[in-house]
Specification:
Layout (H helix, E strand, L loop, with lengths): L2 H28 L5 E3 L3 E5 L4 E4 L2 E4 L2 E4 L8 E5 L5 E5 L10 E3 L2 E3 L6 E3 L4 E3 L8 E2 L1 E3 L3 E5 L1
Bound molecules: FE2/S2 (inorganic) cluster.
C-alpha cells in the first residue's frame, strides 16, 4: 500500500469512527428509561427526566421510556409541550411485536408498521392505533393514569 492510500484509508476510518460514535451516543440518549414512582392508579415521571447534559450543554429528549409491571411492553412517553404528553404502549396491534422508538415515530421491526408520536397508524400492515394512557401534569411531574 502506498503512503497516499494509507493516509486516505486512515482518514476514512477516522471519519467512520466519529460518525459511529455520534450514532451510538444518539441511541443511548434516545432510549432512556425514566425513573418513576408508581402507586396504585398512576405512574409519576419527573419533567426533569426529559433533560440531560451533554458536556456543558443542556439538551432535551423528545421521549423517555417507562417500564410498567402490568405489561411486558414499555410505554413511550412523548413530550409535545410543557403541558402535553402522549403515553403509548409499545405493543404493535398487528401481531404483537415490541415497537422501536425512532425520533418522532414508533416503528415495528417485524413487518414495518409505523405510528406517529400520538399513536396514530401511519403505515400498515397495522390497522389500529396504539393503546394510549391518559396523562396529566403539574409543575414537576407527568402522571400516567391506568
Ligand atoms: S407485528 Fe408489527 S407490523 Fe406486524
Amino acid at each position: 500500500m502506498e503512503r497516499r492510500d494509507f493516509i486516505k484509508d486512515c482518514g476514512i476510518l477516522c471519519v467512520g469512527a466519529v460518525g459511529l460514535s455520534a450514532l451510538l451516543q444518539g441511541c443511548s440518549t434516545s432510549n432512556y428509561f425514566a425513573k418513576t414512582v408508581v402507586d396504585t392508579k398512576r405512574i409519576s415521571v419527573k419533567k426533569s427526566e426529559f433533560t440531560f447534559t451533554d458536556g456543558e450543554k443542556i439538551k432535551e429528549r423528545k421521549y423517555v421510556l417507562v417500564r410498567i409491571a402490568q405489561s411486558e411492553f414499555p410505554i413511550c412517553l412523548y413530550k409535545h409541550s410543557e403541558s402535553e404528553y402522549s403515553a403509548l404502549l409499545m405493543y404493535c396491534p398487528h401481531k404483537g411485536c415490541e415497537l422501536l422508538a425512532q425520533g418522532e415515530y414508533l416503528v415495528c421491526p417485524c413487518h414495518g408498521s409505523e405510528f406517529t408520536n400520538k399513536g396514530k397508524v401511519l403505515n400498515p400492515p397495522a390497522d389500529q392505533d396504539l393503546q394510549q394512557f391518559k396523562t396529566t401534569v403539574d409543575n414537576e411531574n407527568i402522571y400516567i393514569q391506568f
